[in-house]
């Protein structure tokens, strides 16, 4: 054993050093992430209070920084705060921030799907048919809880554009989904009866 330690002391030393480096890096990263999250929480709450008390629109740049930090908790909160308070108006920027939430955050599937649906709702007032379908297709082709809502949105979109055959097709698809709520089923059946005489 003694000879083994003498002959292998360099290897043992480097192995211990390497293991210590990995542990130090891991715990250092954990501490950094925790500190970063606390700072984001502080910035978010402080700027939210500034706006609610003084109507201070200077918070927009601070909230955009929070969105770009790509934090699972505070990036969505900052984005929806700006959107709900009409503090960002550029369609291009709003879609860019939606894409950060959808593509760059490690959200669970149903939260990601809800964000896709919200993006579809936002774009439904001005997007063309292909753009809206491209946004909603991940939901339409899934078994998500939000699939019936995406189908309903497309049905309403075609109905508002007086494309009755396409609208009816999407409303019927809503009724054929597995995870449709009783209220949604009743509402769609009522729409089919009144608008399509079915």
User: Runs with pLDDT <50, length 5+?
Assistant: none
Classification by helices and strands: mainly alpha
Helix content: over 70%
Largest sheet: none
Give the integer mean of the pLDDT values: 88
Distance between the termini: 87 Å
Pattern of helices and strands: HHHHHHHHHH
CA radius of gyration: 25 Å
Task: Give the total of beta strands.
Answer: 0
- The global form is elongated
Strand content: under 5%
Number of helices: 10
What attributes characterize this protein structure?
0% strand; mainly alpha; 198 residues; single chain
Would you give an account of this structure?
With 198 residues, the chain is mainly alpha-helical. 79% of the residues lie in helices and 0% in strands. The protein is built from 10 helices and no strands. It has helices spanning 2-7, 9-54, 59-68, 74-84, 91-104, 109-123, 129-140, 147-160, 164-176, 182-196. Helix 6 (109-123) runs antiparallel to helix 7 (129-140), helix 7 (129-140) packs antiparallel against helix 8 (147-160) and helix 8 packs antiparallel against helix 9. It is elongated, with a radius of gyration of 25 Å. The termini are far apart. The mean pLDDT is 88.
What is the structure about, briefly put?
This protein is mainly α.
Topology, pairings included?
Layout: H1 2-7, H2 9-54, H3 59-68, H4 74-84, H5 91-104, H6 109-123, H7 129-140, H8 147-160, H9 164-176, H10 182-196
Helix pairs in contact: 2-3, 2-4, 3-4, 4-5, 5-6, 6-7, 7-8, 8-9, 9-10
